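BACKBONE GEOMETRY TOKENS
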Amino acid sequence: MRGWPNGRAGVGVIVRRALFLLLGGLAAVPYAVLVLWAVSVWVSPAARTGRDAVVVITVVALALLCLPAFLQVTRDLERTAARALLDVTLPDLRGAADVLRGAVFFAGHVLTGGLTVATVAFVLPVLVTAIVDAVSGGGAVAAFASALFPGFDTAAATGAVVIVSGLVVAGSIAGGLLAPWCADVLLGPTPEERARQAAEREAVLARRTDLARELHDTIGHALTVTSLQATAAARILDTDPEAARAALGEIERIGRRAAGDLDYALGVLRSGEQAAARAPAPTLAALGDLTGDARAAGLDLDLVVSGDLAELPDSLSRELYRVAQEGLTNALRHGSGRTARLEVRVDAHARLELSNPVAPEAPPPRAGRGLTGIRERLAVLQGEVRIESGDGLWRLVATAPLRTGSRR
């Protein structure tokens, strides 16, 4: 349980928990009335012949009074009170197991609330009377105890009152201390529900991570290529209008494709639909289009393919396509000399290697979002990635076993 707060916060906690217990005391009133009536009738000499009827009436009335404990509205009210007065966070549940746990909590709330009301209505007056007796020498408490326990002598009756009062106060205090924990256990999700909710949260976070990675790779690549194409078009607009128009056409084509990627991302964010349902999923079969975009942006790219790309599982081919896309984006954005070499080899493993020259004074590669995304993709594929810079070259090497992919 959480530590008890100090100062004003501690007073506020005590007040709120006392109010919570008093609410239980109000709910306990009909139960207390029924029990007092049944006991008074049972011990009455005039009712000896009608005790069977008293038992039947008591059982039926108690059963009717227990019905609210199993109602959904009761559990909703208990959760509302617990959130407001016990400072606990409780989701709304509708499972079958929630019914019994909610009934147990309601019973505990009524019991401890009844003890709290008894503390206020019985124990505190007895305590005040005992203090007055001690000061004035009176015997009001002893007389009350003797009347309450007529079969005991005065000392034993007084001791019984003290014991009962102590138990009532202890039960009330224990109820206040344990109420938040009980609310969390009995009104909150079960361990199985918590595990399912944690798995759902992890799935949502994983989907968001996938979406962020896709947006970074697709939109980032499109922006890089279009900005380079726009720069080239502006530079040659007067000297070579045809080439400038071709560059503008590439900008339009890549912009439409980026708009489709963005529309997919917005659809996932708005509706929470699974990424696989609508995701654009290019594979290495579209490697020619990707390298064509890079060459149109001014990159002198040497492409080498060894092996049959069609043998790659679709999941592996999709991820390697994104790795190549991010690598070419970095080559366009940070490389020097406007040259690069991309090699894809397929045998027992799939291997993708991209290298491009960098300025000698260029800083070493940092772990940006794109490189982090590459590592995440290869980790899912049980593959390896190596990113290094040296001898005037920036090099990206990604390898993954073919067996980890699926044909979906």
Remarks:
- Strands lie at 300-306, 339-346, 349-357, 384-390, 393-401.
- The longest strand covers residues 349-357.
- The first helix runs from residue 7 to 43.
- The chain is about 65% helix and 10% strand.
